């Protein structure tokens, strides 16, 4: 099957429609063009969407691909998506706004995010776990705000998610995780409470290989695309308690005993202009 998503014109058009819908904060009724048939085709759309969006990329999100879907996408275990300047927010105790596109996809995820203290440039040789571990400055509790103009983006699978900014609308960076380098992954326990009800519990062990395993994937995935990670970049490493649907007006608390809490208020995203 021809991967129409790899046609430069098709990639540019899909990206243009995603970018326009995100800028206007309006929902899309369907995937905006031919669905790419491969990971490479989907990343071609993502690269074009990054170019059209225009804001600096200050980090990346990593997410698992369901095992049943991996064979159809070259065996890829995970995917990545960009975090743009202006969508990376630090939580400083007070509730942080988490804007989502009304009528689109909207969820929050309790995650751990690494901050790099050294560059991991694109290179021919793959990175190893020691390479990426040495590049980490610190680990933080984080919330990924997963929102997209397309409500069914996750239902359509990895190609749609990759194409649509990785289904990422921002990352809320919380407190640093104490003692994370020596702690078992299971000890980094997390909880998500939405409107007073616990909707998920988990730990860093929910992500295969933990945060460093996700960082290793991101470094090599990006390097293969000719993209490096830079000092100061944030990499949010995957859902530790699941994907929790939200809508504007909801309040949430994401907590980790080794770090503290992130409080957030889900709001309706407002279009530019």
TrEMBL record:
Name of the protein in its database record: 2-keto-4-pentenoate hydratase
What organism is listed for this UniProt entry?
Answer: Chelatococcus sambhunathii
Superkingdom, taxonomy of origin: Bacteria
Gene3D superfamilies assigned to the protein according to its UniProt record, in alphabetical order: Fumarylacetoacetase-like, C-terminal domain (3.90.850.10)
